[in-house]
Amino acid sequence: MNPEEIKLNDWKRIFLGDTPPEFFLEVVLRTVFVFLLLIIGMRLLGRRMAARTSRIELVALFSLEAAIGVPLQAPDRGLLPAIVIAIVVILVGRLVAIFAFKDPKFEQTVVDDFTILVKDGVVQMGEMKKARITLERLFALLRGESIRHLGEVERLYFEANGSLTVVKPDTPNAGLAVIPVIDKDFLDQQPQATANVCRTCGSYEETAKNKDGKCSNCGDEEWVSAIR
Asked: Which CATH class for the 115-227 domain?
């Protein structure tokens, strides 16, 4: 379209475009067809596509979306290319799933593996850096699980699909509070324990404090009272 053809008061072009009115009926038919194609494609890719998806499944989903987007809006594009792309995506997705089922190492290479971010109430700072997860996000997740301190966490797994899974101990220990510092009134209401923990990672002072006063896990020099 030439620049001189673009006019702000050309409402017909803005709302209807350059296609004839008959194309809108065709759009309805194309949308129904593409909707059914997506339903079939998601069904053939497996039940995991309806749950939290992995990287491979996200790629397959984006490929399907890219394949169907153009035929919906472009009258000069047919539906057959979208069908071919959908078939290829489904076949590749199913092949990857088969290989991942037979070989766990293949799945770890393609999809990734899980990471332990909290172990026995202590934040694993090395794993946090590798996963590029901030402490604020970590503590926000724990607060969402009704957890007040790290002593209530036996394991926190960062799954391959990006989700976080909390495993709670049978008997919680005292630990570092995950309550925001700005909520001082609520923080002061928590029962304090006699043990001190690192302000950043929750390591216990008697086991993690170096001679220079620094935490051996994260390097912080400040220690606070654990809560029960």
From this structure: alpha beta
Contact partners, residue 182, CB within 8 Å, separation at least 6: none
Distances (CA, A) of 80 to 29, 36, 71: 14, 14, 9
Contact 176, 199 (CB under 8 A): yes
DSSP 3-state of 144: helix
Q: For the residues of 42-81, what is the DSSP string, one character each?
A: HHHH-GGGGSS--HHHHHHHHHHHHHHHHHHH-TTS-SHH
The rounded Cα 41 to chain-centroid distance in angstroms is 23
Which residue, 105, 115, 126, is CA-closest to 161? 115
Q: Which residue bears the tokens 């950043």?
A: 200
Q: Is pLDDT above 60 for 122?
A: yes
The domain segmentation of the chain, as residue ranges, is 3-110, 115-227
Per DSSP, what are the bridge partners of residue 167?
Answer: 155
Q: Name the band, by pLDDT with cuts 50, 70 and 90, for residue 98.
A: confident
Least confidently predicted of 48-57, 130-139, 177-186, 194-203? 48-57
3-class secondary structure, 196: strand
